[in-house]
Design goal:
Helices cover 36% and strands 18% of the residues. The protein is an alpha/beta fold and 370 residues long. α1 runs parallel beside α6, α3 runs parallel beside α4 and α8 packs across α10.
Length: 370
């Protein structure tokens, strides 16, 4: 069915289609609309799910952990300081191998207090063992949420998945949305280590130095296996519903001499900048990184790179740019732009390309750039 929706409403519609057993919810700007819409579905009898309104984000994730470990399919949503408040239980979810799906509406961390888009909130959770994917359109938010359940619950993965969408720029933007009849795309959920009252076992107990590292290695093994699961899931989705996705989205990339790399809505904005630069005779292209964990293997050889980070790791640099340096041995022009919802237009992005300085870092809007 074709309709018009915000990014938040698209995520809620996808959750409705999958019909998780338990949704734990606490409101926070700019995510609130997701859990409000799901609450309306449950109240209206359109979802046969247990909706738990909790007293905090920490409790929201704790409720999902408790439900998931019984074998229930679970979902929650949060943003920024809510995600930070969850941090202990975010680690618990991955360490206990619980395939919880969570939408995170990316928002800056305070102080100073700011409710607009920035990727720092999710990047602070990048080493917890969660898969992370970043979307750029309303349709992609819907489709990716559907796929997230299947990927998380796959027996080769059994890890939680975080679906990230930029606050306000996408969460509250109205775009066309085509919903689908899901069929058997998301199979029944089976947690191999679910609580079984007939066979009592310990969960989350103390592990000594002779065992702890083995659990961490198993998480890494599943993270590596998720690469194939993501690919197979996206291919099946394309075959059923006609929309293609990948670990990264290329635009006029094949013959490009200079490539703009970004995530989220900035990755889409870059496509317009590429068209402008092509009209000027610059062979530009763009590459929008979708999956940040597991981080993709990208062949970037022989091209100049302009990497835009809507984040910053203090004393280190742009997280995306440095991830590409570590993974691909490249020397990009690193641009820090869009923090706290700072406006970055396609004209600005085209300017980054024209003024690029390989191997250097620049902060958009700041004089005396490094």
């Amino acid at each position: 069915m074709l309709t018009v929706a915000t990014g938040n409403k698209a995520v809620a519609a996808a959750v409705k289609a999958v019909r998780p057993d338990v949704i734990a919810a606490y409101p926070i700007t700019p995510q609130t609309e997701i859990v409000e819409q799901i609450a309306e579905y449950v109240t209206a009898g359109e979802m046969d799910s247990r909706y738990i309104p909790v007293e905090s984000e920490h409790s929201a994730m704790a409720a999902c952990v408790g439900a998931s470990i019984t074998g229930a399919r679970t979902f929650t949503a949060t943003s920024s300081h809510g995600l930070a408040y969850m941090h202990e239980m975010v680690n618990w979810a991955a360490g206990a191998r619980l395939p919880i799906v969570m939408a995170n509406v990316n928002r800056a961390m305070g102080p100073g207090w700011n409710v607009w888009a920035e990727h720092t909130d999710a990047f602070q959770e990048r080493d917890t063992g969660w898969l992370q994917v970043y979307v750029s359109t309303v349709q992609e938010a819907y489709d990716t949420t559907l796929m997230a359940f299947r990927i998380a619950e796959h027996q080769d993965v059994i890890l939680p998945v975080m679906v990230n969408l930029d606050g306000f720029l996408l969460s509250h933007s109205m775009q066309s949305l085509e919903t689908v009849t899901l069929g058997d795309f998301v199979p029944p959920f089976h947690l191999p280590h679910a609580i079984d009252i007939a066979n009592p076992a310990g969960y989350g107990t103390l592990t000594g130095p002779d065992q702890h590292f083995k659990f961490r290695w198993e998480i890494e093994q599943s993270m590596r296996k998720s690469v194939a699961v993501i690919r197979e899931t996206e291919q099946d989705f394309a075959g059923r519903f006609g929309r293609n996705y990948g670990v990264a989205e290329e635009y006029r990339y094949e013959d490009a001499d200079v490539v703009v790399i970004a995530m989220g809505t900035l990755g889409k904005e870059a496509e317009v900048a590429v068209d402008i630069l092509r009209d000027e005779g610059v062979r530009a292209g763009s590459l929008r990184v979708r999956w940040f964990r597991p981080f993709p293997d990208l062949d970037l050889s022989g091209r100049e790179l302009v990497v835009i980070d809507r984040d910053y790791s203090f004393g280190f640099g742009g997280v995306l740019a440095h991830s590409l340096v570590a993974k691909s041995r490249v020397e990009p022009y690193s641009v820090i732009a869009g923090l706290g919802g700072q406006e970055v237009t396609y004209d600005d992005i085209a300017g980054f390309v024209r003024d690029r300085k390989p191997g250097q870092e620049s902060w958009f809007g700041v004089n005396g750039n490094v």
